[in-house]
């Protein structure tokens, strides 16, 4: 029996270390629900770019950044641009400088779009509580993409509290994604002209509902363009992300805010999502409400992803690489 003591003891040490690392991530489902509930409330009227509702959303995001201690990347948090040369829009951009004198020049962008489509066509919505129909024309965009916005805010809170990222991290909430990725196109060009050293961009899109009967929790768009998925799984120690046939079929890699950064920087810029529209019936629909989301799942996914982003920000060399 004495010959088994050393390996058993070593296993206990490894187990305790892993448990401690997992328990150190403390984003709760309650926190996530509170953020999404505000962003997807009727008060914000669907967060259409250029509307009073998206102004409220931006102010909320700014207040969260300030509370966390996340500084603006530019002079203010707002990165302004025009839609159709007439509508004023803005991304919201926060920044945490890296702790390493050399690696801090390498930037990781964590992003999500915070706008939605505003009002949808008037629809008859069945009330689950009283069994009658009611009229609802606000497309609240809980899954699309208050869910992704909550992930970025959660990560901003975590990294601001830990201050342990050797690389610098930019936290970006994009506007006018629904107009054709206009916010991310604007910022990608601006940062390219500023000649930043972009390591990678990780985008979060529709993470509010789990998949069924898959051996991973979320997919990575453009799966075969880099080793991002395999590295994330390595960093987390599980099959957190995988490949979606639906994503490839409909070219979802090109349809979210990661794509303009990939075009401008030729770097690994991809989206993490738990919804490829096979497991959610309310895309751009008035029923995209918080009642449809699984907040326990979301918190778990965000916490695991934070572990991967933390590793990504601290490796001695750039381990995420393009295949092409």
What does this structure look like?
The protein is of the alpha/beta class and 324 residues long. The chain has one domain (27-312): 3-Layer(aba) Sandwich (Aminopeptidase), CATH 3.40.630. It is 38% helix and 20% strand. The chain has helices at 2-23, 29-39, 52-68, 142-162, 182-193, 228-236, 245-249, 259-265, 295-312; strands at 71-72, 78-83, 87-96, 106-113, 119-126, 133-138, 168-174, 197-204, 218-220, 241-242, 269-273. A hairpin with a 3-residue loop joins strand 2 (78-83) and strand 3. Helix 2 (29-39) packs across helix 4 (142-162) and helix 2 crosses helix 9. The chain is globular, with a radius of gyration of 20 Å. Residues 1-23 and 122-133 have low confidence and may be disordered.
């Amino acid at each position: 029996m004495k010959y088994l003591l050393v390996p058993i003891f070593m296993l206990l040490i490894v187990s305790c270390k892993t448990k401690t690392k997992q328990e150190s991530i403390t984003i709760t489902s309650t926190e996530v629900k509170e953020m999404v509930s505000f962003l997807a409330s009727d008060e914000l009227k669907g967060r259409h770019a250029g509307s009073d509702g998206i102004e409220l959303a931006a102010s909320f995001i700014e207040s969260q950044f300030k509370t966390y201690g996340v500084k603006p990347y530019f002079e203010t948090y707002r990165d302004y641009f025009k839609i159709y040369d007439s509508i004023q829009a803005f991304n919201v951009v926060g920044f945490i400088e890296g702790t390493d004198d050399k690696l801090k020049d390498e930037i990781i962008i964590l992003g999500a779009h915070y706008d939605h489509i505003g009002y949808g066509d008037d629809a008859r919505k069945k009330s689950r509580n009283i069994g009658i129909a009611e009229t609802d024309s606000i497309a609240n965009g809980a899954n699309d993409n208050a869910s992704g916005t909550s992930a970025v805010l959660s990560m901003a809170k975590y990294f601001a509290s830990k201050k342990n990222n050797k690389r610098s991290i930019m936290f970006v909430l994009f506007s006018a994604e629904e107009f054709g990725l206009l916010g991310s196109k604007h910022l990608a060009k601006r940062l390219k002209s500023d000649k930043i050293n972009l390591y990678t961009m990780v985008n979060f899109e529709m993470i509010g509902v789990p998949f069924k009967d898959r051996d991973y929790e979320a997919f990575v768009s453009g799966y075969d363009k880099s080793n991002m998925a395999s590295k994330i799984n390595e960093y987390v120690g599980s099959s957190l992300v995988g490949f979606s046939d639906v994503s490839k079929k409909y070219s979802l890699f090109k349809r979210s805010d990661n794509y303009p950064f990939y075009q401008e920087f030729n770097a690994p810029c991809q989206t993490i999502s738990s919804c490829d529209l096979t497991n959610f019936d309310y895309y751009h629909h008035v029923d995209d409400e918080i009642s449809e989301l699984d907040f326990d799942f979301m918190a778990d996914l965000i916490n695991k992803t934070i572990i991967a982003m933390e590793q990504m920000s601290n490796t001695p060399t750039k381990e995420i690489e393009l295949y092409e």
